[in-house]
């Protein structure tokens, strides 16, 4: 009984650390986007060079997962939770890297005149952040309904990215002086789209934990279900 | 004894499936790059729509890992191998996605005149492919020395990407008619750079399996080692 309680405590601690990691990654994305809007070179530089905390947590969480698997030999939902934690940890580490990528592009972007009518970049940033937040909340609550909402938001983020790409291209063709700034905004939008992809991965992991059902590659399922 | 033999067979089978997955992902990158160079719209379209096999294998391998963890309760090097397999599987699935991303950019690129003097894109493609190949060979042989070679190659790939970015930017500024094609080559180069990142992840996992040592985030280690 004591062992069970101990294990459950360890699992709660693992989830808490993943949430810390998520909050940190989210914070870095928000800071990078704010620094971009404020054209704040100092803040941008801090994001580029400040990924140590994310990396420390990444290693710590991986280590926790390994020890839980080695010492506790968990089954069923607990095993699925730990397997999902390994993946979610990897996704969050990549989100931290993407915050760095955004800041690197922002550092170049602010050397040029801003491109005015682009409102979709901050909007994409807010959406990507919301998706990440919602995916992690769904993980804590083990709420597959909330997780499915994240999947829907991802389609909107992709749509915003496509629209922005076309809009920026038009600017660059009309006014070649916007080429350099335009490329960096295109790259930043891509990074935000990928943050949305990582939030989507996390949401899919939540559905896997709860429903013991792998909903990734839904097209694959669709094809398989038509088989005789 | 029979159980041990059975488990060892299952683990070999898992590795074999991961190699299949790696070969498939690598093949798709090679095809996407060849289709880009041949300006072959038909081949490009096949890559964009042909990721079903990768996705089927991705699910199958994840399932194998889960069952091995659930039924065999592996320890030490076997547990590390399975944990690494979960991650490598995720990396290879992303490489498959990146082949699609390359093909999507290639589909746009071939609508415009080619940008002539860019020799670094095929070179980046060959390097990314070689890194992926070497990382998987290192995984099969559990050879940390070979894995470390992959990490060195990644620096070269990043360097090629930076150089290409500057070269393309110069083209676009000199001749705005190259803007659209230039953007797509910049995106393709980024996708190749990310394939290199996934090969690097795999190489780091190999070192983790063999040395039971986590060498990711080496800067973190460096800072920690100076602590009293």
Textual characterization of the structure:
2 copies of one chain form a homodimer. Chain A is elongated, with a radius of gyration of 20 Å. Chain A has 228 residues and is an all-alpha fold. Helices cover 86% and strands 0% of the residues of chain A. In chain A, helix 1 runs antiparallel to helix 5, helix 2 (41-49) runs antiparallel to helix 4 and helix 5 packs parallel to helix 7 (179-211). Chain A contains 8 helices and no strands.
Helix percent of chain A reads over 70%
Biggest β-sheet description of chain A = none
Strand residue percentage of chain A: under 5%
Mean pLDDT of chain A: 89
H and E string of chain A? HHHHHHHH
Residue runs with pLDDT of under 50 for 5 or more positions of chain A:
221-228
Name the largest protein-protein interface in this structure: A-B, 36 and 36 residues
Number of helices of chain A: 8
Structural class of chain A, please? Answer: mainly alpha
The N- and C-terminal alpha carbons of chain A lie at a distance of 48 Å
Oligomer: homodimer
User: Could you give the count of β-strands of chain A?
Assistant: 0
Radius of gyration of chain A: 20 Å
Shape of chain A: elongated
Keywords, please?
mainly alpha; homodimer; 228 residues; 0% strand
What secondary-structure arrangement, pairings included, does this model have?
The structure is a homodimer of 228-residue chains.
Chain A: H1 2-38, H2 41-49, H3 52-72, H4 76-109, H5 120-141, H6 144-174, H7 179-211, H8 218-225
Helix pairs in contact in A: 1-2, 1-3, 1-4, 1-5, 2-4, 3-4, 4-7, 5-6, 5-7, 6-7
